[in-house]
């Protein structure tokens, strides 16, 4: 982990110290067991919630931590460097609070936001469907107006926290085309909502990802966030912020892989010297360190633009692209540094490499990030 983070306030420094303490005492001792058993760590989320780490970037008046995004992301990076699945979960929870916070009415916020940000609940974001991932506007889950609200019927896919979340941001069709999608806040446990079996994933196994079936789920009008047809705008606005979370998570994974590789290279000897002293391997480690620093720099640049109220959508896509590609390369190279040991589950880079892969896929694949960046140049 970087010993010398540039942080704007003493409070931010305290937050990083608190996060490292929790990472050492609460996350590190149980990560392997939960990942292997594919067991959801709800106790861990309770601890993070009590410490105020689940809602850092939201204003204190609504129960959040009132921290700038650049601080929130560095806390997230610290969490992910110890346990990627928990980092992703914190990021997805923050993503799921964004629609209500940014597009809800005062009344809706007063009713639900303090609970969502209070640390005792965890949220999910449900945009994808089996046939609509990158092409989110192709979603077909339908919200039909009924007397007192909406009836929701359809299939959603790939929900991080599916079946364990307390609330779901649902995007469903209320009309035709990309302007015919609306956003809803669905509480857990409503009649007609059921979840599929957790997907058998390559990594992030401690946090479930499931499909969901909506079968005539009834929601009152006040469960719609924003206006009818504003859903895709809300979804993409949330994703700009969420992508920065994924960039920070990816940076944490990459930093962890670099730390493991450097520690190993300082111990392992071949041809009568430590492997770190072979120039060929030293240069590999140097490239890994440069990739980690670049990843962190791009997400901090985007976060500082966001904190300053400047447009940052393109910068968020750059950060997601650079940081997640860095995570994939650095974790793969860390496996290489450990030689045969790197290919085994006895050593951490094997898991880090599996975890890095998903960061290039969710919240917009890196092809989609390139699309966003290219469009901003046209
Ligand atoms: C573990 C996990 C957790 C997830 N969590 C969530 C969640 O919480 N909420 C949620 O809503 N979704 C979630 N997702 C879904 C995720 O966001 C999608 O899988 C992702 O957006 C890609 O969509 P897809 O799988 O349908 O792939 P597709 O869209 O079918 O893409 C397939 C390939 O084609 C490429 N491609 C597609 N269109 C283009 C194009 N125009 N130009 C160039 N290349 C293109 C893609 O980059 C990809 O390589 C999760 C997925 C996983 C695996």
TrEMBL record:
Residues 229-377 form the Acyl-CoA dehydrogenase/oxidase C-terminal domain. Signal peptide: none annotated. Pfam families: Acyl-CoA_dh_1 (PF00441), Acyl-CoA_dh_M (PF02770), Acyl-CoA_dh_N (PF02771). The keyword Magnesium does not apply. One of its GO terms (molecular function) is acyl-CoA dehydrogenase activity. Residues 124-217 form the Acyl-CoA oxidase/dehydrogenase middle domain. PROSITE patterns: ACYL_COA_DH_2. InterPro entries: Acyl-CoA_DH_CS (IPR006089), Acyl-CoA_Oxase/DH_mid-dom (IPR006091), Acyl-CoA_Oxase/DH_mid-dom_sf (IPR046373), AcylCo_DH-like_C (IPR036250), AcylCo_DH/oxidase_C (IPR009075), AcylCoA_DH/ox_N (IPR013786), AcylCoA_DH/ox_N_sf (IPR037069), AcylCoA_DH/oxidase_NM_dom_sf (IPR009100). Belongs to the acyl-CoA dehydrogenase family. This is Acyl-CoA dehydrogenase. It comes from Gordonia spumicola. The lineage of its organism: Bacteria, Bacillati, Actinomycetota, Actinomycetes, Mycobacteriales.
């Amino acid at each position: 982990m970087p010993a010398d983070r540039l942080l704007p306030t003493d409070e931010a420094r305290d937050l990083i110290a608190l996060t490292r303490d929790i990472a050492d005492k609460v996350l590190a001792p149980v990560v392997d067991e939960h990942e292997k058993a594919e067991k959801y760590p709800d106790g861990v989320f309770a601890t993070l919630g009590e410490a105020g780490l689940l809602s850092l970037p939201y204003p204190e008046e609504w129960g959040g931590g009132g921290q700038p995004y650049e601080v929130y992301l560095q806390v997230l990076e610290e969490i992910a460097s110890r346990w990627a699945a928990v980092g992703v979960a914190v990021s997805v929870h923050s993503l799921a609070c964004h629609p209500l916070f940014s597009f809800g009415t005062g009344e809706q916020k007063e009713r639900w936001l303090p609970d969502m940000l209070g640390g005792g609940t965890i949220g999910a974001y449900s945009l994808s469907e089996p046939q609509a991932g990158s092409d989110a506007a192709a979603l077909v889950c339908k919200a039909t107006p009924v007397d007192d609200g909406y009836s929701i019927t359809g299939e959603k896919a790939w929900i991080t926290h599916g079946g364990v979340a307390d609330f779901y941001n649902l995007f469903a069709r209320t009309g035709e085309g990309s302007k015919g999608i609306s956003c809803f806040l669905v509480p857990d446990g409503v009649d007609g909502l059921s979840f599929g079996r957790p997907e058998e994933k390559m990594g992030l196994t401690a946090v479930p990802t499931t499909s969901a079936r909506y079968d005539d789920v009834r929601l009152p009008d006040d469960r719609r966030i924003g206006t009818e047809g504003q859903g895709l705008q809300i979804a993409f606005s949330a994703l700009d912020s969420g992508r920065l979370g994924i960039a920070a998570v990816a940076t944490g994974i990459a930093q962890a892989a670099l730390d493991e590789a450097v520690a190993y290279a300082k111990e392992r000897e071949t041809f009568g010297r430590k492997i770190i002293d072979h120039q060929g391997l030293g240069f590999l480690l140097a490239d890994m360190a440069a990739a980690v620093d670049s990843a962190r720099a791009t997400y901090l640049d985007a976060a500082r633009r966001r904190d300053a109220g400047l447009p940052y959508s393109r910068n968020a896509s750059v950060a997601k692209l650079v940081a997640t590609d860095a995570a994939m390369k650095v974790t793969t190279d860390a496996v290489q540094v450990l030689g045969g040991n790197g290919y085994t589950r006895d050593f951490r880079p094997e898991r880090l490499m599996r975890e890095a892969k998903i960061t290039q896929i969710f919240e917009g694949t890196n092809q989609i990030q390139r699309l966003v960046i290219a469009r901003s140049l046209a």
